[in-house]
Specification:
Number of helices: 2
Number of domains: 2
Distance between the termini: 13 Å
Order of helices and strands: HHEEEEEEEEEE
Structural class: alpha/beta
Shape: rod-shaped
Amino acid sequence: MKMDIFFGNLFWGILFVLIGLSIVLKSFGFKIPLVTTFIAIIIIMFGVKILIGAYKKPTGRGITTKEISASHREYTSVFSSSRVVLDDLTPQTKYVEVTAVFGSSTVYLPSNIDFEVESNAVFGSVVTPSKTESIIGSSRQNLGEGKQKVRLEANAIFGRLEFIIQDVVNPAAPNDSTAAPSGF
């Protein structure tokens, strides 16, 4: 729960107004219990913020990026989760990089392409159908079968990458890469 109520302009504004009001009224002989009044106003402000939903859990946290060129693709997930489907790789695509930092990604690889996977894990895990790298490590392996060869670099830093090989139904289908932020 974020407690910006105590550091926002409203808090300090009320504090200074009460102090000023207390000084002015004291000069006219009125006594206002400043501390009690201030605590009561803070409790009321806190209750109003809860009632209007100011402390709802925010959605859409994290960063997910996707960069695509003719020969290079890069997918990054930071503090979020993503789903990457690589079923529309062109023959010009030679390099794909997938990185998860404090997040997770599930990557769907077409079975008709030969992927040379270089995986790196730093306090994370890279899961492929044939091998799992976790904690700290790196490895090289080949996934898929096909004439087209693509170098795939997988980096998991305090995160998780999972690779799933799927049969290609329609190789000309548009890319279905989507990113769904998780509520960390």
